[in-house]
Amino acid sequence: MEIDAIDVKLLAELQQDGRLPVVELAQRVGLSATPCARRIHQLEAAGIIQGYAAAIDPALLGLKVRAFVQVKLERHTDENVARFRSALDAIEEVVSCFATTGEHDFLLQVLVPDLESLSDVVLKRLLRIDCVRDVQSSLALETMKRSTRVPLGHLR
Known about the structure:
- The protein is 37% helix and 19% strand.
- By secondary structure, it is of the alpha+beta class.
- A four-stranded antiparallel β-sheet has the order 2-3-1-4.
- The protein is elongated.
- The two termini are 16 Å apart.
């Protein structure tokens, strides 16, 4: 799908407030409601817009510990990666996972209420995945910047 300037405006507005009514969104980007709704549908169908969610402050819900856990597999085979991915699906506290270059294979972001809970996730769940060789954790002391927004400047 080719993205034009109006699509970029739509994406920027929806990233700012995904609950905007189509009529208001259309006014902000200079369209009428029907073409605006059609463009949103096209962006969704193309997979560019993957869903809508509320931005939640984890600390206000008692999830005060944010850790970044690097994981190295025994061997980086397709089978091990699939087993690791499947095991991660059962660990709710792992909120994101990235395959990485460098010494470790994956970088996980983990949200938990306290250090005891982090210990449980690392020692009793991650390290018990049979293809995991090593984990290394770092704690976030302070969140300096947090965003779910995707940069759009290069599309303008």
